[in-house]
Design goal:
By secondary structure, the protein is an all-beta fold. It has a single domain, classed as Jelly Rolls. Strands 1-2-3-10-5-8 form a 6-stranded antiparallel beta sheet, with no helix packed on it. A 3-stranded antiparallel beta sheet has the order 7-6-9, with no helix packed on it. A hairpin with a 2-residue loop joins strand 6 and strand 7. The N and C termini lie far apart (44 Å).
């Protein structure tokens, strides 16, 4: 039997992405990925889509501006948004504080990204 331990941003594997954004793998498996991410003020990711992965963003603090297939959504603290596979999207932090959110992907989205 495998020992189970609690995980947080304090003890999870950390990585950097884009221009100064951070991610912490809370669950890192091929079938399901849960990541806590932080995006500094005025930073964004490249517009892209995933061939196989569906994703869910849940905002912990700040406001995420997420463009999905040409429609822009402002997602605030305590709210989330689903992005289906093959839908082009881009996340931005155009708010006044760092954006922190949980990013859930099924299956794992790394290696499945196509920039547009």
């Amino acid at each position: 039997m495998t020992a189970i331990s609690a995980i947080s941003g304090n003890n999870a594997e950390h990585y950097k992405w884009e221009n100064g954004s951070d991610g912490w793998y809370l669950l890192n498996s091929d079938l399901l990925s849960v990541i806590q991410e932080r995006v500094p003020l005025r930073e964004s990711e490249c517009r892209h889509f995933h061939n196989n992965s569906q994703q869910f963003f849940y905002v912990l603090s700040g406001t995420a501006q997420i463009e999905i297939s040409g429609i822009t959504y402002n997602v605030g603290r305590g709210h989330g948004i689903h992005i289906a596979a093959k839908e082009a999207h881009q996340l931005k932090n155009s708010g006044s504080v760092d954006l922190e959110f949980l990013f859930v992907s099924e299956p794992m989205s790394h290696g499945d990204r196509v920039n547009t």
